[in-house]
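INTERNAL AUDIT FORM
Audit reference: QA-55
Scope: verify that the stored structure record matches its stored sequence.
Auditor: D.O.
Record contents follow.
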Amino acid sequence: MNDYPVRSEQQVPMLLKSFRKARGMTQADLARAMGVTQQTASDLERNASSASVSRLLRLLSAIGVELVLRDKQADTKVLTPDQSETGKSGPLDW
């Protein structure tokens, strides 16, 4: 599995289009999978930064891609033997 870090909104349209095409999907296929018009699918793909989170997640799901948020600081932290990934506290540790 490859990660594709996104550091600017300009990267998103290219990545979405690449994933869609890698799945052998046209924009019309994407539109059908999302239940929207082809024009809407095209607009979402080109202007993902202006899409609602809900619509973006639907688009990602339709092309088989997941959104992963990673704590950049945690990537550099070294765990001691008595710590585990599930035992770490984080932003969702309620």
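Auditor finding: record pair retrieved intact. The chain has one domain: 1-69.
Action required: none
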